[in-house]
């Protein structure tokens, strides 16, 4: 029973990371109607920026803030300079751009930093916090940071005029333009926020997985499963789906298939959701009258 509780609680911490990346995927999907396959590589590249700053002598939390700011500018710049000029191109063209960005970020990172695995520091103490033994201090700190980010995003989109304008621009661009909302800049802001969230997830997962140009490939797959479970257009669903995937991954890996095959959990979940309930738990159901 103690092992079960430990794996379930640790799964919540891991699920928080999946929830962050899933939330970034949902934000991009709401704005463009497409899944950003380069989200994980963008997060990985930003994590390398944080590693560089730390090794230049910048304190961890200073590097953390600077990296989040860099990630925001990176995401906003990609949307404004690269995607906005594409206009209303076919969906496949946008998907190819995302795949191209994935390859570019992965290759450039490998060229600049090599593919040698590097260690990334954790800002949390090595001993468990509050005297409990079920979660390490890093797992507990990761869960706390994830929940804090989600709370800030909720307040931003729910209680600020800028957040409401972003939601309006994503849901109905034409009507938003009629009331004076600059849809292009709202989409760039959404991309910036999604990139910043991904960077936070990358810096939280790097101490566990070690820093490597391919470290986010599996995380992105789990995050995609989380987004599909919760509903690809539902931010709340992405959070719930991330926690579900994190717990299931740990429990199934411990009791059924072993840690070597845990990645198959995400694939099975993706296929199962698409077959049984394509809209996810909280996603919008499309109804067509015939």
From TrEMBL:
The chain crosses the membrane at residues 6-28, 35-54, 60-82, 89-113, 143-164, 185-210, 222-248, 255-276. The keyword Ligase does not apply. It holds the Pfam family BPD_transp_2. It is found in: Cell membrane. InterPro entries: ABC_transp_permease, BCAA_transport_permease. Coiled coil: none annotated. Keywords: Amino-acid transport, Cell membrane, Membrane, Transmembrane, Transmembrane helix, Transport. One of its GO terms (biological process) is amino acid transport. GO terms for molecular function: transmembrane transporter activity. GO terms for cellular component: plasma membrane. It is a multi-pass membrane protein. Belongs to the binding-protein-dependent transport system permease family. LivHM subfamily. This is Branched-chain amino acid ABC transporter permease. It comes from Aquincola agrisoli.
